[in-house]
Amino acid sequence: MTEKRDDLYLPSREFVEQAHIQSRAEYERMWKQSIEDPDTFWGYIAKDFHWFKPWTQVYRGEPEIGDNEWFVGGKTNICYNCLDAQIEKGRGDKVALLFQGEPEADCKRFTYNDLLKHVCRFANALKKNGVKKGDRIVLYLPMIWQLPVVMLACARIGAVHTVVFGGFSAEALADRMLACGAKKMVTTNGYWRSGQKINAKANADKACMLCANAGLTIDDVFVVDRMVDFEVPYITYRDTALSKELMLDEISDYCPAEKMDAEDPLFIMYTSGSTGSPKGTLHTTAGYMVYTYTTFKYIFDYKEDDIFFCTADIGWITGHSYIVYGPLLNGATTVMYESVPTYPEPDRFWHIIDKFKVTIFYTAPTVIRALMNQDIQWIEKHDLSTLRLLGSVGEPINPEAWHWYSHYVGHDRCPIVDTWWQTEAGGVLISTIPGAFGSKPGSAALPFFGVKPVVLRSRTSGDEPAVEADVNEKGELCLASAWPGIMRTLYGEPERHQNGYYTQQPGYFFTGDGAYKDVDGYFWITGRIDDVVNISGHRLGTVEIEDALLSHPAIVEAAVVGYPHKVKGEDLYAFVILDKNSKESEEDIRKELKAVVRSDIGPIAVPGKIQFVREMPKNRSGKVVRRILRKIASNEIDEISDSMINILAEPGVVDEIAQNRIGDK
Ligand code: ATP
Ligand code: MG
């Protein structure tokens, strides 16, 4: 049993005894060294990788202005380290990738040997068709096994991949292609989504046309066949069927790995676009490699026999770092699943855990809340006893969801790591290290190695120096160090890189998130700084209010935004989703919600308006896009632009919510 002490949940003795790091003191010692002597700390870890040429300097740069280089002068290849190096360590016959397609029977196991062969063949096919080192290439691919294979093939030959979430529209895809100037793309003939065959190629074709209209000609579109009997039109001078290329005799099973400079670009990844237009974070080779390896090993307390299942989409940084690169660099077995958690029934994740005997499960609060709203029999009918550790990522996890996750999924036995980070970071920045110290529901806990978070008071003028907030005082979460996985720039937008991260609190990396630190040094994320609402001079973080609303048993999702109010300056507008089994009237629930907020936080935080909605406007990574809700609440619906709508998983919900907007009395 995990032991509870106040709100601190400690790992069991059995867990601690087998863990990589077994005490807070040991963690503190390592963290201190990582900050005071990063060269020794990271140099020691990096020497276990395969280098074509060793580095001459571990770190060079000026972290205060975002100028960072790691493993300077070294030559390596991340694909080589993910595959060849694992095979050299004797893992050739170990399962590297377990792919579960949407149809249950469509399940594939790839050993490290198999994966290397596929990756080499794809790499050779791309090379034969002119893809070379330094080319930017967009991968408009859904969650099919070919996606990690093509990513690794690109990394092997030095092409810079940009994965664009498969569910994005042609417009959203074209925006990203134009932003990174990629003239090559890999896509698929189709994929499964909730029993439907989705035609990805039609969107890809339209995006190419949109790019051409904007002056960017797409030279090559490579098409992967995911569907067997799904014909899509080909444009002969531009499109190449990769399945046919792969059958050619000249495509060999081996492709040498390009010797990449430590700082050569590895990929460009667009942020989720929750707070503004997406930013193309550029990640480079060696630092990202060493950082994802290390975070995966210690945060998930990874051991050789673990089966790791991360439910994120690979079109999001979490999928890059914790489905593909982090696990493979550790020689792990990683599970990837093509479709949604509720198809064909709401127990698909539990079924996958049972089927593959998953030991570590990593998902998002939005998924947990959706699944805890289902009948309990869906989870109880599966054997989840192989699980030993659970993770959460993407947004603060509200205590109700934390407890449900811990009890029903973790059987009060598995530690939970709440991992706070962002696309810009490459890997997790703040988390529990599960054998070393306990978790507090709702807190991301302590910084990872190499990460030095500080909570600063907000500055009102350019001349003010940075001032650290007191213990328990809310402020702006900033980072005072450089870690190897940090993005190097925003691709093509160096000024936005400077202005967006290094000017708000000069000398620090500005995360855009609010937080406070408690007496135990634990960090609590209070949401986006932009989401702070100012009511009659009181600054309120919306996460706290959402947590209060979510503590009502009839509420499954809640999002709170501010809107202009004549008297108070701003007032609060809450959007909530009701539990489908709730029998109470909306009016009664409204009254109860107001009462809950009043007693949990105070009268000042009671939302003036509460609207019941069927679905939230969520982006591809499952986050509520509050800037759209703010426009609706403020009655500025005309200002909701296409680019805001394009990032949504279900764009139609915006009209629906806008139509039912609660007006002013
Ligand atoms: P954009 O930067 O384009 O507005 P985004 O910030 O949603 O989009 P991501 O990089 O995918 O894009 O998300 C990172 C953000 O997600 C963090 O800054 C934080 O606000 C939130 N987040 C992620 N994990 C956690 C967590 N464990 N606890 C609290 N918040 C989290
Ligand atoms: Mg962000």
From TrEMBL:
Bilayer-spanning residue ranges: 137-159
InterPro entries cross-referenced by the UniProt entry: Ac_CoA_lig, ACAS_N, AMP-bd_C, AMP-bd_C_sf, AMP-binding_CS, AMP-dep_synth/lig_dom, ANL_N_sf
A Pfam family that the UniProt record links to this protein: AMP-binding_C
EC category: ligase
Protein's UniProt keywords contain Nucleotide-binding: yes
Chain ranges of the Acetyl-coenzyme A synthetase N-terminal domain: 27-82
Occurrences of domain AMP-dependent synthetase/ligase (ranges): 89-489
SUPFAM superfamilies registered for this protein in UniProt: Acetyl-CoA synthetase-like (SSF56801)
GO function term, MF aspect, one: acetate-CoA ligase activity
Acetylation keyword on record: yes
All copies of domain AMP-binding enzyme C-terminal, residue ranges: 544-623
UniProt entry keywords in alphabetical sequence: Acetylation, ATP-binding, Ligase, Membrane, Nucleotide-binding, Transmembrane, Transmembrane helix
EC number assigned by the record: 6.2.1.1
NCBIfam families, alphabetized: Ac_CoA_lig_AcsA (TIGR02188), PRK00174.1 (NF001208)
Similarity comment: Belongs to the ATP-dependent AMP-binding enzyme family.
Protein name: Acetate--CoA ligase
Name of the gene: acs
